[in-house]
């Protein structure tokens, strides 16, 4: 494709350099937003009398025609074009002749690309928001079914204290609620219009930046033209939000991987969401969750790409910034892919309540409750803790549990122990009594379900 800037040059650009320089292979996906931005710009140029109303209308119609032709497949991108902006402008001029050449009045590709990415990411955020919300609602629904499903809670992956499956699931709902909030917040800060910044120093034409901002649904024009063309904070912010979404999915994935091992057997994945082995006939592998865990690395890599790309750039636009798109697009694509796969995998998995409960019944998960029993009878916590530790050691040496240890052994340690200790350390009591706000007791979990319902607006 002939270069618009060819006038200043005496030679054609080297073919390899052209391919190296071109971004159409990856910014082509912003064609709709580029046209949307150009339509707003052309409208404003016409309204301000910078170009005639007639030319403005012809340009707008021309742009709409290009959009329709791209969408119905009759217009293909020229892959030798420098980028999507140049391609669309050249196509407009092909179609309209001199009128098409008036579109770029008082505009630079620098403010054009900045507006395109914002418009594109704004739409993407909306889509990701809906997907993450759907996932959060699915987890919430699953939690509702498991307020009485007792399982071990872990620290250091050692059985620690009893919780319920609903309690565990609602922790993820809270993470996703924060993710949703972050997406909203990012979209809000991103929603300012760089159009009218020009190449860097604004323009001598009497443009109306408020009008283009309004036409494109932005809150307001960006306040400074240098910042307008060189700011990519919003890409970083969005990637941060996406990295955290992936981090949450990855932690959940790690648990699912463990839970469906033979050692845990807390859940079983639906056959449609698991894979087999090429050699071991017995295998049913949680590949989806492993891929999510793996892809978290590349989304984090995208974040590092963006931060590193920006950190040494002088104001204003520098070509390094073209690297922003592949990074943030990769992060977006992968997050969407992961959430879309994770949600149905979760809603179809089978929960093995019995195994969860059995695991909670072992491993001295009620030791804290045994110490608390003594505290409630007046003993200082540190003494009660020490006595319980000694009892646990005794159980281990005799291959017993706190439930099966005879009362005499308890009473040898302190007379405060009576028959009711067994009731106090039963799994039911341990869960039921953990009713502090945010805790696992069914009553406390019901309140958390209420909170989640409000947060999710369902
Ligand atoms: N393709 C470029 C990008 O993505 C568009 C802006 C080019 N501006 C320029 N002055 N070379 O950043």
**Radius of gyration over alpha carbons?**
31 Å
The overall average pLDDT, rounded, is 96
Task: Give unreliable regions as ranges.
Answer: none
Based on Cα principal axes, name the global outline: elongated
Instruction: List the secondary-structure elements in sequence, H or E.
Output: HHHHHHEEHEHEHHEHHEHHHHHHH
Q: What is the distance, rounded to the nearest whole angstrom, between the alpha carbons of the first and last residues?
A: 52 Å
- Heteromolecules bound: arginine
Q: How many individual helices?
A: 19
Provide the β-strand percentage band: under 5%
Spatial order of the strands forming the largest sheet: 1-2
Largest sheet: 2 strands, antiparallel
Helix content: 55-70%
| Protein structure class | mainly alpha
Let me know the number of strands.
Answer: 6
Q: Can you offer a commentary on this structure?
A:
The protein is mainly alpha-helical and 458 residues long. The chain is built from 19 helices and six strands. It has helices spanning 15-21, 24-27, 31-47, 53-71, 84-96, 109-145, 165-190, 209-215, 225-230, 233-259, 287-311, 323-348, 353-361, 367-376, 381-398, 407-413, 421-424, 427-432, 442-456; strands at residues 150-155, 158-164, 192-193, 220-221, 267-268, 350-351. A two-stranded antiparallel ribbon has the order 1-2. Strands 3-4 form a two-stranded parallel ribbon. Helix 6 (109-145) runs parallel beside helix 10. The longest helix is centred in the first third of the chain and has 37 residues, at 109-145.
